[in-house]
Specification:
Blueprint: E1 3-4, E2 8-12, E3 15-24, H1 29-46, E4 56-63, E5 67-75, E6 88-93, E7 96-104, H2 110-123, E8 130-133, E9 136-139, E10 142-146, E11 160-166
Antiparallel strand pairs: 1-7, 2-7, 3-5, 3-6, 4-5, 4-9, 4-10, 7-11, 8-9, 10-11
Length: about 170
């Protein structure tokens, strides 16, 4: 079962962030991405940089058969200089209109929540800021914001995740 709030369209400002980019498959995603998140957290702590919100996964390129390009990151108050680091990059999430929804439940059900948000946006006549090429779907911003801290809430069925997909 997917527990979703009513989807909405929000206008968002640019959001600076730091991240680690990873190329994964659906089967390597879970062992790889949480480790990358820990590296980002450690780097921010080591550089005394505060986060400006919850951690996220940003899907850049999606090809369910061949793999996904994902950034695992945390928002920052301003653009951060990541020069000299091997894995950490800095960037800015684009401003614009986003289709958003809050999902409550186990992360395994995010696939269904994503499908529901995509279908809802289509029913509203909205298009996403995405292009399809031979190597997959290239998204301007398709983001999962992890609102629940797993250290504070162990029951994964209570975890809250916000999906925010940039509209064209």
């Amino acid at each position: 079962m997917v527990d979703l709030a009513q989807p909405t369209i929000e206008v968002r400002a640019e959001q600076p962030y730091v991240a680690i980019g990873e190329r994964v498959t659906m089967t390597t995603m879970v062992p790889t991405l949480p480790d990358a998140s820990a590296v980002v957290d450690d780097w921010l702590r080591d550089h005394s940089i505060d986060t400006a919100g919850p951690p996220f996964w940003r899907y850049l390129v999606i090809d369910m058969e061949r793999g996904l390009e994902i950034e695992v990151g945390s928002p920052t108050e301003s653009v951060v200089d990541s020069a000299g680091t091997v894995r950490i990059t800095s960037g800015v999430l684009p401003a614009g209109r986003y289709a958003t929804v809050i999902h409550t439940g186990h992360p395994d059900s995010l696939v269904d929540a994503t499908a529901a948000l995509l279908n809802w946006a289509a029913s509203q006549g909205e298009r996403f800021d995405m292009v399809t090429t031979d190597d997959g779907e290239h998204w301007a911003a398709r983001i999962e914001w992890y609102l629940t801290d797993p250290a504070e809430e162990r029951d994964m069925t209570k975890w809250r995740t916000q999906l925010a997909f940039k509209l064209a």
